[in-house]
Amino acid sequence: MGRGVTVLRYCGIAGVVCLCSCSCSRFAQLTPQEKVAKAKADLVVLQHGIDQFRLDCDRYPTVAEVPRGLIVEPPKASGWHGPYLPTGFGVDPWGNQYHYERGYENWSYIIKSFGADGKPGGRGFDADIVDGTD
């Protein structure tokens, strides 16, 4: 992929992040439905950052590297061309860290928010939001 296309992709992602981060100061004012929508949008941004890291570094980031290693170059990240996320990215609309785990295979991962209660599982607004989908 050419650098021009990559730059355009970053600009698009940055636009989404800017729109999402404009509402960051409103977290306390967001309705439960808006918080779920924000978490889903954030997961899409995080997914793009992780995938771009993989394209540049020929590996997915480790659990210890997310989200900081997508913002600041981590050690042993040959080919890193980030930042892949904006500074300060990492908490869901309820103030909890997004959860990232590597899959059982080397080339898979799961990202999620644990919802309003911050605990795995749950129903309604407490339900986990996984990979930006229900």
Task: Please summarize what this structure is.
The chain is mainly alpha-helical and 134 residues long. It has helices at 3-22, 32-57; strands spanning 99-102, 109-113, 129-130.
Task: Describe it.
By secondary structure, the chain is mostly helical. It has one domain: Glycoprotein, Type 4 Pilin. Helix content is 34%, strand content 8%. It is built from 2 helices and 3 strands. It has a 3-stranded antiparallel sheet with strand order 1-2-3, with helices on one face. Helix 1 runs antiparallel to helix 2. The chain starts with a helix and ends with a strand.
What does the average pLDDT come to?
83
What is the strand tally?
Answer: 3
- Detail the poorly predicted runs: 16-20
CATH topology: Glycoprotein, Type 4 Pilin
Q: Output the CATH homologous superfamily.
A: Glycoprotein, Type 4 Pilin
Q: What kind of sheet is the major sheet?
A: 3 strands, antiparallel
Helix content: 25-40%
Topology:
Layout: H1 3-22, H2 32-57, E1 99-102, E2 109-113, E3 129-130
Antiparallel strand pairs: 1-2, 2-3
Helix pairs in contact: 1-2
Features:
134 residues, mainly alpha, Glycoprotein, Type 4 Pilin, globular
